[in-house]
Design goal:
Layout: E1 18-23, E2 29-34, E3 38-42, E4 45-52, H1 56-64, E5 66-72, H2 78-85, E6 100-102, E7 108-110, E8 114-121, E9 124-127, E10 131-143, H3 152-157, H4 197-208, E11 215-219, E12 225-226, E13 247-251
Antiparallel strand pairs: 1-2, 1-5, 3-4, 4-10, 5-8, 6-7, 8-10, 9-10, 11-12, 11-13
Length: about 250
């Protein structure tokens, strides 16, 4: 009997949405969005998360041996999700303007727009290819709100968020897959660099050099720039999926 793997089968899996955080050796607080955090045992309570090997947050966790996971609520805004999901931790102080507390190990736990936080000590690391599975005991857990937790299905169908190219089940040849509720966002979009992006942006800027005045529109969530004078009312960000209302006009 011939066997096969249909990638769409993975869309039946459900996920939550979490801010995974740790600290670099210099004390810088780093974090990213992931949907692969889960409880794996009850006695004692243990949890795991799968993160891309190239993520800044992953490297920080390997250094500290610890991480926190803050479960987002349905009230979480695309702006907050964008801070952790579409920006590099080395280029932006992600926790600088956000309400957060340190856990016992002095790692940041996001408080606003979250329903609970967890602190995990990593005692097992499993190499699963592009990602590392980090497993360990839960040392702290706090309830912050009785609001419904944000699921990845809600993120896609209500907030209209997109699946990053570095995600576990991202399918570049299937546009519909990028908005399927079960698709995994196990890695942070901008924590690993995209070598093609600067050249494409440079080309767009060059095309506008002869135009005066020069304006563009920048997404407040992911930072994507559209080099046009005006955005159509039905415009959707090709990176994070938000609408025109979350773009700001800038001069270039």
């Amino acid at each position: 009997m011939e066997t096969a793997i249909d990638p769409k089968a993975f869309h039946a899996l459900t996920y939550g949405l979490f801010v995974i955080a740790s600290k670099l050796p210099d004390g810088r607080k780093v974090g990213c969005i992931a949907n692969t955090f889960q409880q794996v045992a009850s006695e004692p309570p243990q949890a795991s998360v799968a993160l891309n090997k190239e993520n800044v947050t992953t490297k920080a966790i390997l250094g500290t041996g610890r991480f926190t996971a803050s479960a987002l609520s349905e009230q979480a805004t695309m702006e907050l999700i964008g801070i952790f999901g579409f920006h590099n931790s080395l280029e932006r102080e992600k926790f600088a303007s956000l309400d957060h507390d340190p856990d016992a190990a002095m790692l940041p736990c996001l408080k606003q727009q979250c329903v609970a936080t967890f602190s995990i000590r990593v005692d097992q690391i499993v190499d699963v290819g592009t990602h590392l599975l980090l497993v360990g005991p839960v040392e702290e857990a706090r309830v912050l709100s009785d609001q419904p937790p944000l699921t990845y299905a809600y993120y896609h169908t209500v907030l209209r968020g997109k699946t990053p190219p570095k995600a576990v089940s991202y399918q570049p040849d299937d546009d519909a897959a990028s908005n399927t509720p079960g698709a995994s966002v196990a890695s942070c979009l901008s924590e690993a660099s995209d070598a093609t992006a600067p050249s494409l942006e440079a080309q767009k800027v060059e095309q506008l050099e002869a135009t005066e005045p020069r304006y563009a529109w920048r997404c407040k969530v992911c930072g994507h720039i559209e080099y046009v004078e005006e955005l159509p009312d039905d415009f959707i960000c090709p990176i994070c999926g938000v609408g025109k209302e979350l773009f700001e006009r800038i001069e270039v």
